[in-house]
Structures are given as structure tokens and as C-alpha cells.
Automatic annotation (TrEMBL):
Ranges where the HTH araC/xylS-type domain occurs: 87-185
GO BP annotation list: base-excision repair, AP site formation; DNA alkylation repair; methylation
Keyword Methyltransferase tagged: yes
Keyword DNA damage recorded: yes
Keywords assigned: Activator, DNA damage, DNA repair, DNA-binding, Metal-binding, Methyltransferase, Transcription, Transcription regulation, Transferase, Zinc
InterPro entries, per the entry: Ada-like_dom_sf, Ada_DNA_repair_Zn-bd, AlkA_N, AlkA_N_sf, Alkylbase_DNA_Glycosylase/TA, DNA_glycosylase, HhH-GPD_domain, HhH_base_excis_C
Name under which the protein is recorded: DNA-3-methyladenine glycosylase II
Length: 495
């Protein structure tokens, strides 16, 4: 989009917040870059340059605007819609792969050499993977500086910097202020909103509006696995396994943001934890595009109009989601929770949760690799499906992560015994974030389709759904909202 000067200029003139995260505007006369909705008077057109990412603007010698804080905007929805190598790269960078494995490790995951990957990102994004990761570190650092009481030294390592000096120099270059000055300025501006304590913090996760969070949080609440997830005082809480330890996160929805209260074992995991929370809640989606596309269908239009801004309930761990989808084959939501809880109790690592009732992490595929079938209270055929999936994930015969190829993952899944279109599409939609997945054989989808006058049989429904591309996952979520089911209740009803 950044290459269309007229379109970008109109967005800046209108101060349209919908375009925040799509691109940044660099101002030649001041040397700063801003989000499109920056409240200051727009500069003259001849003084504007548009960049696809903050990293590209920083490489051009521009520093972040102190007024609009462009690093506090939602991420670009483009990386969640596209399945090409650049989009997969951005998703992996967001998960902190560059910080943990370097550019070489990132390239290896994608099947490219480091040099090839650098050429691709430089050509499209104006920055190398290392520069993109650096910009992300700065963004996370600024969020932690301004919204928590973490010691500045802890912020540096939590954001992924290797040294205090590198951290200080980068923040000064990008923000034109020292970390201490940034914190002091933030406190003067809003008085702070931090949760003090070792490893504990309170963050505000930005979201594009409209934000119909009831279906999203209702689904997470209805499918919550005891011990791993819970709803407490209007907050969805869960445990997470992270690269260097574990975390407990509480997520409270609001019309224009999500309040995130996070406790981590290791500060180095903060960046990954935030990225996974955003992915779980699908916060970087483009609701306006979805509304425009799906609202054109006469059958879907009433559902879209009733609750625009639906999000897909996703996951913090692709392997966990895949296991849970198989556990949910041909059973009710309550039965799937029971099966999952049994595995959690038998194989999951224990965690401490002083603020609630969470007790375990969901077991990893390594922990489930020697699963005892006495813990699997369902037919032998589905037991074989589950153990086959676990084995395939353990050996990387099936690759499911934030940067995997969606279509390749589908083919790998479908090659396993007992995994059909419903399972592969549910994993693609909720586990991998493919916006165009469509579980046409889902009973809830069929029931909802029939309720609004659409064919309920999978084949004719799939034919009709072609008009919804590339937003069929969101069409699925809208269809689910037509049902009288616990997944649409937030806060959940007392049992």
C-alpha cells in the first residue's frame, strides 16, 4: 500500500486510524515518522514519504513521533492474510525467532538462505530481517518502559537486546529520548498503569475497531481446559509455554483494546508472550475489509451488521491446538474439554498461580510421545489418529508454527490416518491463522447456514462460500454467532 502515494496521502489527511499499522509516514522537514492517524497537522505532500514498516523508516534516518507513538499501533493485517514467504517471515520475526535463532535460523525455517531472505525483505519491506527484529525490540522496549515498573535493565533484556549499551543507543536513536526520559514522560502524561512485582506487568494491547469480542472470548471460555484456562472476574486467563519458561496471562476485553496482565518466568520471553497473546485474539485483523466483503452477501449481511469486527479464536501454541482439535473430533465441546483435562493432569507440567486457579501447562508433544492409552477414553481409531499426529509433530513430518506454509501444512495433515477436511481446516483456521479456511462439514456451520437460508450440505455450501474468499474463516465465525451456544456467551453464564 505504501507505494500508492495518493491513497496514503488521503488516509493521512483524514487521520484514518484504520490504516495504522499498514504503513508509516516519514516527514522530511522534521525527520520523524508517524502513524497515519497522528493528531498533528499533516505536513505538505512534498515533505512526505511512505514506508511499509517502522524498520524501513528507521533505516532511512527517521525517528519515532513522540505524539502519536507509531510503535503502539496494531500490526499490519497484511501479514495475517498473506501466505507468501515475506508474510511468513514477518510472523516468525514477531514470535522472536530472530532473537533466539538469528537470521540463519529464520532462513532455515523458511527453506531459504540468509542472503536470499534478506534480498526478499529488502525489496518489499525496505529492511532486512535483522532490522525488522531491531524495530520490534524497540517497540516492545517502549511499551515496557511506558506501561510497567520493570527496572530499565530488565526491560532491555525482556525486549531482546543483548546489552544495556545497545539498548540505550537504539532507544535514543529511534525515540530521540533516553529510556529514563521516556518513562518519566509517560508517567507525566498518564500517571502510569503498571502492575508492580517480579515478572508481573500490565499492558494495553491495541486493536483495530470495530471489535466484537463477545464471540471471541465466549469461544475461548466455552472450550477452556481446566487447569490450563479459566475465566475469573471478567478476565480470560491461561498458562503458556514459552521458549525460556512459562507464563500466566490474563486478558480482559474492552471496545478498543485488550488489557493484558502478564507474569513470566523469564523476562526474555516477554516479546514472544505479547506476540502470542495478539495472535490468540487475532488483534491485527482488518475488520473493515471483512465487513465490506462479507456484508455484500445477502444471507450473511444481517450477522455482519449485528456484530461487525469478529475475530478468530486462535491459539498460543499450534501443537496444542492440533491435539485439542483431534480430541474434539465427533464429540461435544464439554467432552473435548474433559479429554484434554485428563491429558493435562497426567502429563502437563505444574505451575504456580497465586492470582487464580491455574495449575498446569498443556503438555508438549514430547511429553505426549509415550502416552498411555488408558488416559484416552475414546475409540481406538481416534486413539491411533491422536498418537499418529503426536508422532508426526515430534519428527517434523508435520510442521505447524506461525511461519509455516498453510497449504503444505494441510497436505501434511491430510496424509495422516484419521485426519480429514474438518480437522485440517480447523487447525488451519485456529492454529495457523489462515483467514480463508472453511470447515464446511462442521455441524455448527451447517446448522447456522440452514438457519439463515443457506444450503447446509457441505458441497453446495462450499460452492456458495467461494464468494466469501479470502475471508471464509471470518464467515465461519459469523455463522457460529447465529447459534444459541455457550461459545457466544461472554461473560459465560454461571453453571
Amino acid at each position: 500500500m505504501h507505494t500508492d502515494f495518493d491513497r496514503c496521502y488521503r488516509a493521512v489527511q483524514a487521520k484514518d486510524a484504520r490504516f495504522d499499522g499498514w504503513f508509516v509516514i516519514a516527514v522530511l522537514s522534521t525527520g520523524i515518522y508517524c502513524r497515519p492517524s497522528c493528531p498533528v497537522r499533516p505536513p505538505l505532500a512534498r515533505n512526505m514519504r511512505f514506508y511499509p514498516t517502522a524498520a524501513a523508516a528507521q533505516r532511512g534516518g527517521f525517528r519515532a513521533c513522540k505524539r502519536c507513538r507509531p510503535d503502539a499501533s496494531p500490526g499490519s493485517p497484511e501479514w495475517n492474510v498473506r501466505g507468501d514467504v515475506v508474510a511468513r517471515t514477518m510472523r516468525l520475526i514477531a514470535d522472536g525467532v530472530v532473537d533466539r535463532e538469528g537470521v540463519a535460523g529464520l532462513a532455515a525455517r523458511l527453506g531459504y538462505t540468509a542472503r536470499q531472505l534478506e534480498r526478499l525483505t529488502q525489496a518489499e519491506l525496505g529492511a532486512t530481517p535483522l532490522a525488522l527484529a531491531r524495530a520490534q525490540r524497540t517497540q516492545i522496549a517502549r511499551v515496557l518502559i511506558e506501561t510497567t515498573e520493570m527496572p530499565i535493565s530488565d526491560v532491555a533484556f525482556a525486549a531482546g537486546f543483548s546489552s544495556i549499551r545497545q539498548f540505550n543507543d537504539t532507544v535514543r536513536t529511534v525515540c530521540d529520548m533516553s529510556p529514563t526520559m521516556l518513562r518519566r514522560r509517560a508517567r507525566a502524561r498518564d500517571g502510569g498503569d503498571a502492575l508492580a512485582g517480579a515478572g508481573a506487568m500490565s499492558l494495553r494491547l491495541p486493536v483495530r475497531t470495530p471489535f466484537a469480542y463477545e464471540g471471541l472470548f465466549g469461544h475461548l471460555a466455552a472450550t477452556a481446559v481446566p487447569g490450563v484456562e479459566e475465566v475469573r472476574d471478567g478476565t480470560y486467563r491461561r498458562t503458556m509455554r514459552l521458549p525460556h519458561g512459562s507464563a500466566v496471562v490474563g486478558l480482559t476485553p474492552h471496545p478498543d483494546h485488550v488489557r493484558c496482565r502478564l507474569v513470566v518466568d523469564e523476562f526474555r520471553d516477554v516479546s514472544a508472550a505479547i506476540a502470542r497473546c495478539r495472535r490468540l485474539l487475532d488483534l491485527d485483523a482488518d475488520p473493515e475489509a471483512v465487513v465490506e466483503a462479507l456484508g455484500a452477501d445477502d444471507h450473511l449481511a444481517p450477522l455482519v451488521t449485528k456484530a461487525p469486527g469478529q475475530r478468530i479464536p486462535r491459539t498460543v501454541d499450534e501443537h496444542e491446538l492440533a491435539v485439542r482439535v483431534v480430541l474434539g473430533q465427533q464429540v461435544s465441546t464439554a467432552a473435548a474439554r474433559t479429554h484434554a483435562a485428563r491429558l493435562v493432569s497426567a502429563y502437563g507440567d505444574s505451575v504456580s498461580d497465586s492470582a487464580g486457579g491455574l495449575t498446569h501447562l498443556f503438555p508438549s508433544v514430547a511429553q505426549l510421545s509415550d502416552i498411555d492409552r488408558r488416559h484416552l477414553a475414546f475409540p481406538a481409531s481416534r486413539q491411533r489418529t491422536l498418537t499418529g499426529l503426536i508422532a508426526a509433530l515430534s519428527t517434523a513430518e508435520v510442521v505447524l508454527d506461525s511461519g509455516c506454509d498453510w497449504q503444505a501444512a494441510r497436505q501434511q495433515l491430510l496424509a495422516l490416518p484419521g485426519i480429514g477436511p474438518w480437522t485440517s481446516e480447523m487447525i488451519a483456521m485456529r492454529g495457523l491463522g489462515d483467514p480463508d479456511a472453511f470447515p464446511a462439514t462442521d455441524l455448527g456451520v451447517a446448522a447456522a447456514a440452514g438457519h439463515i437460508g443457506l444450503p447446509s450440505a457441505p458441497k453446495p455450501l462450499s460452492e456458495h462460500a467461494r464468494a466469501w474468499r479470502p475471508w471464509r474463516s471470518y464467515a465461519t465465525q459469523h455463522l457460529w454467532t447465529a447459534l444459541d451456544h455457550a461459545v457466544n456467551q461472554w461473560p459465560p453464564k454461571e453453571k
